[in-house]
Amino acid sequence: MSSAYLSSRLGSAAAAILLIAGIASASAAPAKNIVLVHGAWVDGSGWRPVYEILVRDSYHVSLVQEPLTSLEDDVAATRRVIALQPGPSILVAHSYGGTVITEAGNDPKVAGLVYIASHEPDEGENEAANGKKYPTALSRANAIEKTPDGFTYLDPARFPELFAADMPRAQAQFEADAQILTAAKVFTTPVTCQSALKGAPPSASKRDPLGGYGSALPAGPAP
Q1: Which residue range(s) make up the domain with 15?
Q2: Is residue 179 part of a domain?
Q3: Which residues sit opposite 115 in a β-bridge?
Q4: How far is it, in rounded angstroms, from Cα 29 to Cα 25?
Q5: Is the residue at 147 inside a domain?
Q6: pLDDT digit string (tens) for 38-74?
Q7: How far is CA 184 from its chain centroid?
């Protein structure tokens, strides 16, 4: 994959985040704080190119490092970072991180949610069931392996193709060999609350070219 194409994809992700931040700023206090939430098998370092774009545009950016040991632990890690924000914040997720921000997003400090190629399970749903409803090439590939003690990882030989196709091959292979083993139960634990997006007006919702979307949330405390 060419570096120009990769840069275009990253730019699209950053543009989606800035768009929702702008909507939130217009509807309430300015949202200058961005919280980035990674998905399964990786850590927050994968957000670095997007982080650099946002920081260059004068946003205060924080990255959550979820332990990937349970949905509850990952939500708790996200809420800790939200609590540290100095004002209204936008939560941004990739992949399984969408489930995390759906659960963590009902917070008075959260002004908007952005989903980049990620799921938004409804109350009572889980990541695995949502993935069956909206299958991807990864979910169809049967490439997820499992350890005897219940942690998952992607077949390293197939990781570059299925999870990092936009990266230079050497970088993708490094990511494959540096995977964070992810507890299988994170995919089957149901979301316990309704997404904060349920209260967002349709006019505040935007979609981006990566298959992601986001909304600014209504002003005031989250439901």
Answers
A1: 3-132+190-216
A2: no
A3: 93, 213
A4: 6
A5: no
A6: 999 999 998 998 999 999 999 999 999 999 999 999 9
A7: 18
Task: Give the C-alpha separation, 65 to 108, whole Å.
Answer: 21
Global pTM reads: 0.82
- Contact present, 34 and 58 (Cβ < 8 Å): no
* H helical segments located in 57-214: 71-83, 97-104, 127-133, 137-140, 159-163, 169-177
Reading the block at residue 178, the tokens are 């540096």
The full length of the chain comes to: 223
For the cut 50, the answer to whether the pLDDT of residue 213 exceeds it is no
Number of domains in the chain: 1
* pLDDT tens digits, 65-116: 999 999 999 999 999 999 999 999 999 999 999 999 999 999 999 988 988 8
- Amino acid, single-letter form, for residue 3: S
Q: Is 128 in contact with 146 (CB distance < 8 Å)?
A: no
- How many whole angstroms separate alpha carbon 49 and alpha carbon 57? 13
Cβ atoms of 60 and 109 closer than 8 Å: no
Give the torsion sign (CA, 20, 213, 46, 126): positive
Cα–Cα distance between 108 and 218 in angstroms, integer?
10
Question: Residues near 107 by Cβ (< 8 Å), separated by ≥ 6?
Answer: 79, 82, 222
User: How remote is the C-alpha of 16 from its chain's centroid?
Assistant: 13
> Which CATH number do you get for residue 122?
3.40.50
Strand order in the sheet with 151-154: 144-146, 151-154, 182-183
